[in-house]
Amino acid sequence: MRRWLRQHRYALAVALRRLWLHPFSSVANLLVIALTLALPLLGASFLAAAQPVVKQVSISPEITLFMATDAPRGATESVAKTLADNYQDHIEATRVVPREQALATLKRNPNWADALAVLPGNPLPDAIIVTLKNTDDLAAKTATLTAAWKALPDVHSVQHDANWVQRLAAILDFVRIGLGMLAAGVALVVLATVFNTVRMQALTQREEIAVARLVGATESFVRRPFLYLGALTGALAGVCAIGIAWLALHPLNQAIANLANSYGTQIRLQLPDGLWLLTAIVGVAVLAALSARWSVTRNTRF
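Structure tokens predicted for Cell division protein FtsX:
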């Protein structure tokens, strides 16, 4: 056991010495990998911040019927009963929102309170919010029902306002797939960079490796410092990538805060949790070590 630990300490020391003896190439390789790794980290931060916003907004298929402001008393309940009786196969739930309730809700919003205070009366109509059952032909069914409900008596307008949320969810799915492809590209960059770094190291120390073999060094002993070199490069690049992403989040948060405030919401980008970041660093280190093993195996056959 002591012999095994001594060999690994020696291999780690050799790898650190090789990094130290070639500072320019080491820093260049670290920056290339770190900048590449920072991109999916920023993308993951964006997805983590956007997911709660999407969850807060209902993406259920809803249609809102706005009644005429001069509709007689009881017209809203009558239309709601007509919908429940005649379209029960398509409707999951129906909710009536009286104009007084809608006005009170808006007054609680400071952005609307001052404007509503100067109005002589209540300009809002009664509304009926209808939640449809989810089906495969939802888009076509929604268009048909919207056209039919516009013709109901005392109905002023019909609005289907969930389309943009469904588009947003689709965009997030697209971004998630794009991040997966970007992660695959990052893995290739890590493999190529570490492979080339170890290749140059192996070719530089060609004679040293040959002498070590002549005196009885095993292949594991020859390869081990290169494996540590690859793993250290990957781990250090992962730490640098986290630092770069953390620095980039400050100006991004300032910009996105101004945009979110204009929509009356708050969004803050932040890095994933510590366990996720630690797993990412370990994963990059393992990937770099595998690339180093592949490279040293191919380039020390002499």
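The CA atoms of residues 137 and 143 lie 10 Å apart.
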